[in-house]
Structures are given as structure tokens and as C-alpha cells.
Write a structure and sequence with these properties.
It is a multi-pass membrane protein. The chain is an alpha/beta fold and about 650 residues long. It has 24 helices and 13 strands.
Length: about 650
């Protein structure tokens, strides 16, 4: 029946075809004396269809090979950049050491003359509980909209204009305006390019060597299902909190979350194409000699019911993962995400036998992340104090403990398996559960960035103090706020720490460090600036701007801590609250710094989408004009 094909391959092809057409009459007649396959025309049709199915499986399976190759290139790029950054950092540290004996302490008079006035304020703290003295710096609050300035426009500056490389970097760094009507924030052009490349690769795998004929439409629908299956391990890998991609690329799971969402959306689209394609094939295009006895028989067949179950589970996963749903019903999102994905994997396992290796890989990633690492190894329970801060909407959760003695013989274990009790790195975050809140709160885990200075991992620190700033909205956070009024002590289960040192490494490798926080984004920025100022300051110029919505938010960071940063040489700028004077001119703040910088500049921003976009696009313009800026955007929110 299949000329030129070995017996083993023939049996495999027939097995694939039997499984693909389990709902048709043909399966029951394969072994009969009289079969539709006795017709030579039908034999040729079946041969072609089997060939298209098998070719599709081979083509789509190669997707993972391409993705692994891209990952290999990204790994080389990341570690090459790490080597360069370490050399820059070492050079800065050597400069600091060589000039330490010649340093002249800054006097109070020098400090007072260092900045001049307008309508913003620079904090100059003191370790004593005296009020912080305010002084102003040049920061305009005009009506200039930095977002409307052309990305590629140039300003006169005493340095050469950027070349082609600067143009490409700025273009990739630029972030377009939110989409109209739905007002959805778009990622940077660089991220969009990566996502578009991923979509293009999948579309190519789906359509390559497909016959665009109605009678072979089954092959199109079948391949959509296989594209879905092949992407399963990647989807779960990008979602895992403990995964090797952080080590390979420098990006932890929260930075990769946007790719996880895009992969999930693409898979849901392919599932829809597969489902609609198979129904269309059965109702309109299937040859009569292949058709099932009735529509009822088709839709009640176990194979189809399993497929419908998998399709429904993954589509529900998509809708419950939308940003609007997560913001309103975060607790329901968490619960449904776990239940639905387990149910979906079970349905896929029984629906499509070829999917089983991919389902096993996805299940192994899920179980190892959730059970072995997060619950068994990275979880710890501590006693914490919770109190309501001055704004009445924010909870400060604080805990302290003695750091356990580190076992130097288990370095690799410390990197991957150590829990929060052994310390953390700047800008890391933890997932917390508070069983005493009762109900479903005992099972929920919510992420919060550690706002206090980091003791480090495996360092010389013997005592750790952890602070979390928790803004109350609804659900878990509102329950915690009620429980904290005015203060109380609770038992907290912490899963973590998680995070990446990529932003800190970028700042360490720059002679000018600019950190910008919006509101609770200070929880990300403060540990970074503290680490830079207290352990790696010297010749590095450090600038911190904190944009606050109301004056009560200043209580989130103590005057003593700000005073220590100021004395360590950090230029701290806290403009008047935006509720009083509007938003500060962030673009002017950045350009004033970069215009006087003689070396590369590291920029880290953490805040709302609008602030992040303003900083990103201002940096893009500066890069276009030839300035070397290493930008990191730490977007908070899930």
C-alpha cells in the first residue's frame, strides 16, 4: 500500500493514521475483507494524507531544536556581557581603591552649593530623629510632554552623534504608546521583535509543506494540534519560578513572564484552530467513506470529548489570565491556574497519544517547581510584625532572624535550594502566605519585593531584617490590612527568594548610576541604591529619584536611611507629591545627568507603566544621540 516504505515505517504510519482518525468508519474496516482502501484512488488519498501528517510531525518537532539554538546564542551573549561588565566593575573598584587615600571629604557648605533651586526637593537626611531639611534642585514641571518628542530627534550636545548601532539600539529600546480604545500597554520594540520572531517561527512550522487543498484540510487541523503540543514544555518552563533560564540568560521568571503569556496566547490560538479545523473537516470536508455514522456519534466519541475538555481548560486559562481578570480576582486567578492546568494536561494525555512525551516534560517541570523546590526546599516560616503606615492603605511587614551558618561545600545548593532564612540579594522578592488570616488565604501565595537592604547570600552577615511594603487593594491585602490595624504579630510562610542580579550588575558596571522609582517601586530601587552606596560607591555617581503620589508615602523609607545614603554620596531627589503639583519632568532629569556624564550610564526604573515608558523612551533618545546607556525596567505587578 505504501511503496518504497519499510514495514516498520508503514506500521508506524498506519498507527499514526489510526489514532488521528479514530472517530471515522475507516478504523473499523482496516482489517475487514472489504474496505474502502481497496479503491486505488482512496489508497492514493490515504498515502498522501499520511505523508502530510508525518512530515508535519517532523517539521513541528524541530521547533524545539531551533528554540534551543536561540537559547544557546542568548546564553553566549549574556555571559559575554557578564564578562565585560565584570571587567568594567573591576576597573571602577580599582579606581576607587587607588583614589581612596586622596579623597577630600565633602563639607556641608559644598553640599549646600552642589544643587540649585526650583520647585522640587532633594532630601538631606540625618541619623538623628530630626526633621529632614528640604532643598530644591533644577527640575521643571512645565507642560512639555516628553513622549511627544520624536524618538530620533537630536539636540545640540558636545559629543558626536550616534551611528547606525546607536540608531538600532534606540529603536529596539523605544516603547510605543498604549493601544487606543483598550489602552493596553505595549512592550518595547525589542520585546515585540522577539515575540514576532517566535510567532513567525511557529507559523512557518504550521504551514510549511502543507497542501492547500480542501480535501487535505485534515492535515492542516492536525498540525495545529501538534504545534500546540510541542510548545507545552516551553510554556511551563517560562512559568517556573525555579528554572535554568535565569542562570543561562540572566533573566528570572518575572522578566520572562511576558514571553510566558505570549506563548500561552499562541497555544490557545492553535488549540482554537485545531478544534475549529477538526469540526469543519467533519461537517463539510470529510469524504463520505471516512465519515462517522452521525454528528452525535462524533461529538460523543471519547477522543473528541477528551479534546473538548483540553480545549475548554486551556481557553479558560487564557481568559482567567487576562490582566483585567487578575487585577479584580487575583485569588481566583491563582486557584484556577493550578486546577485548570492540571486538568488540561490530563485531558491532553488521553486525547493525543503523540503528546505524551511533551506532557510528561511539562508535568515534570510543574511538579519539580511547585513541590520539590518551592514547597520542600525554598519555603520557610517566620514570625513577623505587621503595622499600618501613615497613609492608612499600606502595611509594613517586618521580620528578623539570625542567618544560619553557611556550608561552603554546598555552593551550588546555596544558589538553587537556599530559602529566605539564608539571606537574599537586592531587589529579590518572596511569595508569602498568612495562614492566620483563615479561609483561602492559608493556601494563597502573593509576591512582594523585599524593600529592606539585603544581607547577601553566603556573606559575612549574621543577622537579617526583612521588610515588605504591601499596598492594600482587595482580597488578601485588604484582609492583611484589617488584621494589622494598628499592629500585630503573625506567622508568615515565605517562598523564595526569587529575582535576578542583572539590574545590579548593570549599575555596578556603570560610572553613573541613575535609579528612578514611582510610588511603591521604591521597594525595588532602595535595596539596589543601598548596595551601591554602602559597598560599591567611591567614584561612581549615584542619582536617586523617588516620585511619590502623596506626602504620606515618604514614611515608607526612614529619614535615617535616606540620610545615610546622602552622606554616602547619593544625590537624592524627591519631587513634591504628584497629587499636589503633577508629574515631574523625568526627561529633563535624565538628560541633565547624561549631558554631564563622561562615561557609560546605568539606569534602573521601577514604577507604573507611564513612568517606565517615559524613562525608557528618554533613554532611547539619549542612546540615539550617542550616549551609552544600559537600561533595566523593573515592572512590578503580575
Amino acid at each position: 500500500m505504501l511503496p518504497g516504505v519499510s514495514t516498520g515505517d508503514r506500521e508506524q504510519a498506519l498507527d499514526v493514521f489510526r489514532q488521528s482518525l479514530r472517530t471515522s468508519q475507516l478504523v473499523s474496516t482496516f482489517n475487514n475483507a472489504s474496505s474502502p482502501l481497496d479503491d486505488p484512488e482512496n489508497q492514493e488519498y490515504i498515502r498522501d494524507l499520511i505523508r502530510y501528517i508525518l512530515e508535519g510531525r517532523t517539521i513541528v518537532a524541530s521547533l524545539n531544536i531551533v528554540i534551543l539554538f536561540v537559547l544557546f546564542l542568548l546564553t553566549i551573549s549574556h555571559w559575554s556581557e557578564r564578562v565585560v561588565d565584570r571587567r568594567k566593575w573591576a576597573t571602577i573598584e580599582r579606581d576607587i581603591a587607588s583614589s581612596a587615600h586622596n579623597a577630600v571629604p565633602e563639607t556641608a557648605e559644598d553640599s549646600e552649593n552642589a544643587v540649585s533651586s526650583s520647585s522640587s526637593s532633594t532630601l538631606e537626611g540625618s541619623i538623628s530623629p530630626q526633621p529632614i531639611h528640604l532643598k530644591s534642585i533644577h527640575l521643571n514641571y512645565g507642560n512639555t510632554d516628553a513622549e511627544r518628542q520624536p524618538l530620533l530627534g537630536s539636540r545640540p550636545r558636545p559629543r558626536p552623534h550616534g551611528g547606525v548601532f546607536s540608531f538600532l539600539r534606540s529603536l529596539l529600546m523605544y516603547q510605543p504608546a498604549p493601544t487606543p480604545v483598550i489602552n493596553r500597554a505595549l512592550p518595547s520594540n525589542g520585546t515585540t521583535l522577539v515575540v514576532t520572531g517566535y510567532f513567525g517561527l511557529n507559523i512557518f512550522a504550521h504551514l510549511y509543506k502543507l497542501p492547500f487543498e480542501a480535501r487535505h484540510f485534515f492535515a492542516f487541523a492536525d498540525r495545529a494540534g501538534f504545534v500546540f503540543i510541542v510548545n507545552l514544555p516551553l510554556l511551563y518552563l517560562l512559568a517556573a519560578k525555579n528554572q535554568p533560564l535565569k542562570l543561562l540568560t540572566g533573566h528570572s521568571y518575572e522578566a520572562l513572564n511576558i514571553y510566558h503569556r505570549r506563548v500561552g496566547e499562541w497555544m490557545c490560538f492553535e488549540a482554537l484552530v485545531h478544534f475549529a479545523g477538526m469540526v469543519t473537516w467533519r461537517l463539510c470536508l470529510e469524504p463520505e467513506w471516512l465519515a462517522t455514522e452521525s454528528i452525535w456519534h462524533y461529538f460523543t466519541h471519547p477522543l473528541v470529548l477528551e479534546g473538548i475538555g483540553a480545549f475548554a481548560a486551556y481557553e479558560l486559562l487564557y481568559f482567567t489570565s487576562l490582566g483585567s481578570f487578575r487585577q479584580r480576582w487575583y485569588e481566583l486567578f491563582l486557584a484556577s491556574h493550578v486546577v485548570l492546568q492540571i486538568a488540561a494536561l490530563v485531558f491532553v494525555w488521553f486525547h493525543f497519544f503523540t503528546s505524551r512525551p511533551y506532557v510528561l516534560a511539562a508535568l515534570a517541570i510543574f511538579i519539580s517547581d511547585r513541590t520539590i523546590w518551592r514547597i520542600g526546599m525554598k519555603s520557610a516560616t517566620v514570625a513577623a510584625d505587621v503595622e499600618t503606615l501613615a497613609d492608612g492603605e499600606t502595611v509594613l511587614l517586618s521580620a528578623s532572624w539570625d542567618i544560619p551558618h553557611a556550608n561552603t561545600k554546598r555552593a551550588l545548593w546555596r544558589v538553587f535550594g537556599q530559602n529566605i532564612l539564608h539571606g537574599w540579594q537586592p531587589a529579590d522578592h518572596v511569595f508569602i502566605s498568612v495562614p492566620s488570616l483563615g479561609g483561602s488565604n492559608a493556601l494563597q501565595a502573593h509576591p512582594f519585593t523585599i524593600a529592606s537592604a539585603a544581607p547577601g547570600l553566603g556573606g559575612i552577615a549574621t543577622r537579617a531584617r526583612l521588610d515588605l511594603l504591601i499596598r492594600a487593594y482587595s482580597g488578601f491585602t485588604s484582609e492583611l490590612l484589617r488584621h494589622a490595624c494598628p499592629s500585630s504579630t503573625v506567622s508568615v510562610r515565605m517562598d523564595g527568594p526569587y529575582g535576578s542580579q542583572d539590574p545590579l550588575n548593570a549599575l555596578r558596571a556603570s560610572k553613573t548610576a541613575v535609579l528612578i522609582a514611582g510610588g511603591s517601586g521604591i521597594a525595588v530601587v532602595f535595596p539596589l541604591v543601598w548596595d551601591l552606596a554602602m559597598t560599591h560607591s567611591g567614584k561612581r555617581k549615584i542619582h536617586l529619584m523617588w516620585v511619590i503620589h502623596c506626602s504620606s508615602q515618604q514614611s515608607w523609607v526612614s529619614a535615617e536611611q535616606l540620610g545615610e545614603l546622602r552622606r554616602a554620596g547619593v544625590s537624592i531627589t524627591i519631587p513634591p507629591p504628584t497629587v499636589e503639583v503633577g508629574r515631574p519632568n523625568i526627561a529633563s532629569y535624565i538628560t541633565d545627568i547624561t549631558s554631564t556624564s563622561v562615561a557609560d550610564v546605568g539606569v534602573v526604573v521601577s514604577g507604573p507603566d507611564g513612568l517606565n515608558r517615559t524613562v525608557r523612551n528618554t533613554c532611547a533618545r539619549e542612546v540615539r544621540s550617542g550616549i551609552d546607556i544600559d537600561l533595566r525596567v523593573e515592572k512590578f505587578g503580575w
